[in-house]
């Protein structure tokens, strides 16, 4: 009983430390870059170790569903470790998010299997096959959910487009250079190369402006301004 309590308490303590560091990195304290992701990675690796030993006293089916839980735990740990060096990478962020959500939904599934019903035949091989299929359904549902969020919220708002336009010095556009200054031959947008590069085109969120590199640069600039002006 006490070992079970210590296991969960240790697990929560590691995530608490990672959470505190994550908050401090967004304050005025000088925290090494990437330390927040490193501690989250260590917390997940520790969680995987504790869950692996946690299932040693269980039945075969209980062990199996806990071992499946190690997939999102360890995948999230490796992904968080990569983010120490590759920060603000949308692919890694989406993958890590999918692993965290899947871990949560599978924990609900484990609770239902252990305490919700007693109709599962622990000796039937098809039960184990169905558990693997069920995990795939969980992860597939998470992918569809994140895809829906990305499609509905993944575009830049007008304010963000305005900030990006100023950041890229888009007030002096290719259209102005070509039609007024006569210093350029092509008035097309330097990013999408499809529409005349007018201020309205930039502020209406050119499809290339919304891509990773430009949005990442905008976020980094905004963060540095916040740190150096708002927090001092």
From TrEMBL:
<feature type="transmembrane region" description="Helical">
    <location>
        <begin position="64"/>
        <end position="86"/>
    </location>
</feature>
<dbReference type="Pfam" id="PF04819">
    <property type="entry name" value="DUF716"/>
</dbReference>
<dbReference type="InterPro" id="IPR042127">
    <property type="entry name" value="TMEM45"/>
</dbReference>
<keyword id="KW-0812">Transmembrane</keyword>
<dbReference type="GO" id="GO:0016020">
    <property type="term" value="C:membrane"/>
</dbReference>
<feature type="transmembrane region" description="Helical">
    <location>
        <begin position="98"/>
        <end position="116"/>
    </location>
</feature>
<dbReference type="InterPro" id="IPR006904">
    <property type="entry name" value="DUF716"/>
</dbReference>
<feature type="transmembrane region" description="Helical">
    <location>
        <begin position="128"/>
        <end position="151"/>
    </location>
</feature>
<protein>
    <recommendedName>
        <fullName>Transmembrane protein 45B</fullName>
    </recommendedName>
</protein>
<feature type="transmembrane region" description="Helical">
    <location>
        <begin position="31"/>
        <end position="52"/>
    </location>
</feature>
<comment type="similarity">
    <text>Belongs to the TMEM45 family.</text>
</comment>
<keyword id="KW-1133">Transmembrane helix</keyword>
<keyword id="KW-0472">Membrane</keyword>
<feature type="transmembrane region" description="Helical">
    <location>
        <begin position="6"/>
        <end position="24"/>
    </location>
</feature>
């Amino acid at each position: 009983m006490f070992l079970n309590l210590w296991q969960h308490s240790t697990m929560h303590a590691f995530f608490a430390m990672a959470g505190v560091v994550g908050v401090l990195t967004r304050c005025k304290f000088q925290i090494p870059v990437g330390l927040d992701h490193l501690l989250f990675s260590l917390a997940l690796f520790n969680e995987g170790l504790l869950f692996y030993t946690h299932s040693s006293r269980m039945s075969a089916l209980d062990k199996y569903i806990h071992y499946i839980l190690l997939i999102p735990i360890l995948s999230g740990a490796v992904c968080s470790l990569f983010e120490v060096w590759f920060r603000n990478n949308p692919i890694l962020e989406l993958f890590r998010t999918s692993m965290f959500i899947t871990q949560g939904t599978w924990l609900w599934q484990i609770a239902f299997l252990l305490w919700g019903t007693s109709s599962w035949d622990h000796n039937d091989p098809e039960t184990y096959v169905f558990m693997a299929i069920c995990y795939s359904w969980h992860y597939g549902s998470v992918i569809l959910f994140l895809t829906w969020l990305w499609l509905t919220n993944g575009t830049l708002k007008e304010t963000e487009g305005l900030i990006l336009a100023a950041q890229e010095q888009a007030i002096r556009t290719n259209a102005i250079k070509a039609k007024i200054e006569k210093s350029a031959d092509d008035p097309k947008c330097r990013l999408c190369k499809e529409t005349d590069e007018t201020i309205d085109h930039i502020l209406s969120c050119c499809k290339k402006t919304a891509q990773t590199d430009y949005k990442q640069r905008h976020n980094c600039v905004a963060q540095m301004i916040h740190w150096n002006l708002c927090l001092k």
